[in-house]
Design goal:
This protein has eight helices and six strands. With 209 residues, it is α/β, with parallel strands linked by helices. The mean pLDDT is 95. One of its GO terms (cellular component) is cytosol.
Length: 209
Amino acid sequence: MKKYKYIVFDVDGTLVDSEMKVLSTLRQAIIDMRGVEHPISELGFAMGMAPKPILHRLGYNIDVDEIIHCWEQHLLHYDKEVVFFEGMLDTLEQLSTKYTIGIGTSRIYDEYYKDFANLPIFSKLGLAVCGNMVSNRKPAPDILLYYMDKTGCTNQDLLFVGDTEFDRDCAKAANVDFAFAAWGGKDLTEQDCQIYLQKPTDLLKLLEA
């Protein structure tokens, strides 16, 4: 197995199970700003996508920034506890003893900080590159390029773990190896990915191989 030095994680659907948070707040923002009630089942495609493409796909093409701002405010005020996937916290603890951990997420930084800053694991998560810190969100490579620039690591040193095709394409565009988090993702198969992980602890086994 290739010897990585940095392991960067997506957040939603990879570290934490946040599907209901993301989709319910998106739904409420559209209700608030456009008066349209979309069923949650109609919004599942939005996981991992940047906000503007989500709204365009739903047919909103005018003044979408006001919907995005409303959505961000709902996300910031969502007060339910963060739920990590089973085995993830232990995996992060073990990884932090041998690797530099990082975060690459489409969340805005304020939302990421609100959810994670008071958790014991926060100090071990390292540099977080968030969607509002770069010009282009996933699937563009900006988040990973920014991370490499700030840490000084190379694309050969880095493994990116995510749960969507947007994460995979971000890694591909940055020429970084990608591991698919199948515990949170549904869109990709083993044939679609360099590395396919069934559960968080599989990452430990992979890196020890």
